[in-house]
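Data card: per-record layout.
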Amino acid sequence: EEKKAAAGILIEQVTKAYAVATEEKAKANEEEAKTTVLANDAAALQKEADGELSEAMPAMKAAAEAVDCLDKNSIGELKSFGSPPKECIPVCAACAFLLKNEKKAIDWKNA
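The structure for this 111-residue chain is written out next.
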């Protein structure tokens, strides 16, 4: 009789623990589904960013090569102008942005 009561209590405890475990497993499965969706979104975003980067790299390399041909004398000659030729302004602004990496105050005086 005592063993039956102990077994009944044990069965009740196991049943409760099983219910809790089942509930926790359901929550874990929901979280796993959410995480999978987020991981897939992140992978798609990474793929898109890599594609955009690979498209931009040739232009970046070409711009770097174009700037590499400038030497100190060329820059000194350019600085000697009171105001630059109209065609030079956007080029100098781009160079200033690349060298200083700031958008504000990109003009002839700050170049």
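Known properties of this structure: The two ends are 96 Å apart (CA to CA). Residues 70-111 form one domain.

See the next section for split statistics.
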